Each structure stands twice: as structure tokens, then as C-alpha cells.
Amino acid sequence: MSVAILYKFVDTDIDLLGPILGGAIISGATCLYALGFCREAICMSSLFRSLFRSSLSRAFLAGFLLGTYVLISATGGGELLGVKGGVDPLRGGALASAIVFLSGGLLMGIGTTLAGGCPISLGVHGVPSLSLRAWVASGTFCLVGILVSSIMRGGCLLVEQQVVYVPDLWSHVARSAFLCLCISTAGAIAIAKSARYRHKLSGGVLIGALFGAGLSISGLCRRSTILGFLTLPLAPSLRWNLALPLAMGTAMLLNAGLFAWLHIQVPAGAEPSIKRTIVGAICLGAGWGTAGVCPGPAIVNAFFAPQAAGYLASMAVGQRLAETCWSGDVNSHNKRA
Prior knowledge:
Layout: H1 2-9, H2 17-36, H3 44-49, H4 55-74, H5 94-115, H6 119-126, H7 132-154, H8 168-191, H9 195-218, H10 223-230, H11 243-262, H12 274-291, H13 295-301, H14 306-325, H15 327-334
Helix pairs in contact: 2-9, 2-11, 4-8, 4-9, 5-12, 5-14, 6-7, 6-11, 7-12, 8-9, 13-14, 14-15
């Protein structure tokens, strides 16, 4: 009976090795980052926010994109936000797609700022560190994300079609932006005033590449993987995809042991209150369930699909809005993010 239920509601065709191996690589990257960068967690939303004012953020993100793209090219492409080569627009056309991605990005920006982290940093780093804030935030945003996505997609309020949409003009703009990021990172490493800082920038590139490879191998760069978990199989055609919890669970278990062995702890300093963490996690989960992406996959796909770039722009607006409306508490926490 239990086996029949498993086959009916769970996607049994997923590759189990990919999420496990990818989760192990993500664990290694987070440990190296914590050891090399003042015991901080890898928080893609904070790295994106400080992109234009921090050479370390540019170094990590350049390595992150290089690692992801090299792996995708080596494996013959592979789907990203849902379809090989691009994003899957929604039934209803470009307007519906824009509403979903822009609203999801706005909520994600507000949520990550208030909660003090993105799904990866709160789950893979915060939970193994036994941070109460991370446990509360992770449980809240997962439940809210599943609820929102299941209502929107499982309840057939929103149906998505797999249609490739990558304009030629966007491809040229994306390649140029990626090239500028790599050149600026290489320049920052070359002109760094001290050998120690050059080593730190180079380490950021390498750890970013390792982290990007982990996300790619585990399938977490694919929007279909995220939505496959967040959308409960309420409709007969849906199957529950457990690749995301398998990858995240692997990284959490390994980090629990590695953090204890390497004495990695949550950095001391101001942290968001539990009340504000819950509000942020609700917004984070709502954005996650609405758009089906979090900051890391969106950064990868921004070079392939304009919807993802719109998501990031909207996320930046949400971050700024949260910092303005909750300036005192937010800024004290984000000074070390």
C-alpha cells in the first residue's frame, strides 16, 4: 500500500546521485567560505546586494557563474529555469510571467533582508549551527512556499507552459554583462594592494565555482526542481519532486558534523528579532512559492532569460524597501552580511 502511494504521488524517476553529490559539494563550499571569510555563511542575496561595492562579492559571483556555466557546457547544456535554453513563460503571456517574477522577486528581497539570509544560508549554514533564528526561518519559509505554490499551481490557479523564450538581443546583453563581471574581478585581483587580499579574492572565485558546481549537479538551478518540491501533488498529473530536500538535507547533515569538527559557529553580533525573522520568512516563502526561484538560481539564469533579470531587479527594490522601512534593526544586521 505504501509503495503504491509512493509511486502515485512521488516522482520516482529523479536521479538520486545528483542531489546527494551536489549537496556534498555545497557543504564543502559553505565550510570553506566560513573558514576563509570570517565564519560568514554564503548568502546569495547579501552578495548580490553588495555586488557594486565589494570586490569579494564580485569575485565570488564571477566564480559562481563560471563554475555553473562550465559544468552546464560540459554536460551538454541542460535545462535551467524550466526549459533547455530559457525560462518557461506562463499561460496568459508575457504579462502573467512578468507579474509572477516581479512580485516573487519583490517579496524575496523583503524577506531575505528581514530574515537575515536566503534559503541556502539559513538552511545549509544556520540550521547545522543550531541557530534558533535559522530553524524558525527555515521551517516558516518552507511551509509558506509549499502553501503558496500548491495553491497557485496544484490548485490550477496558474498553469505554466514549457516554451523557450530567449531573445537574441538579450543573449548579447547578457554575455557582455558577464564579461564585464569577469574582467572587473580579474582587475581587482591584479591591482589588490596586498598579497593576502589577492589570495582572498582568488579564494572567493574558487569557492564560488565550487558552490555553483554543487547547485548545478544537485539540480537546484532548475526552476522545475524547486517547483516540483514546493507544489504538492494535488492534481493527478503532478508528482512530488524530492531532489531539493535531498540535496539540502545532505548538505545540512554533513555541515552538522563538519561545523562541530572545525568549530564553526554563528558569528556574534546583532541578529534580527524572532518576530522580524518570522515576518521576513513569510515574505521569503511567499516569494519563493510565487516565482519558483531564490537568489542563486536567479543570478545564474539572469544571463539566459530576461524574466530572471527582472526578478533580480525587483529583489533589489525589495531589499531597499526593507532597509528603508526597518532601517534600525536591518542595517545593524546587514553591516556584517
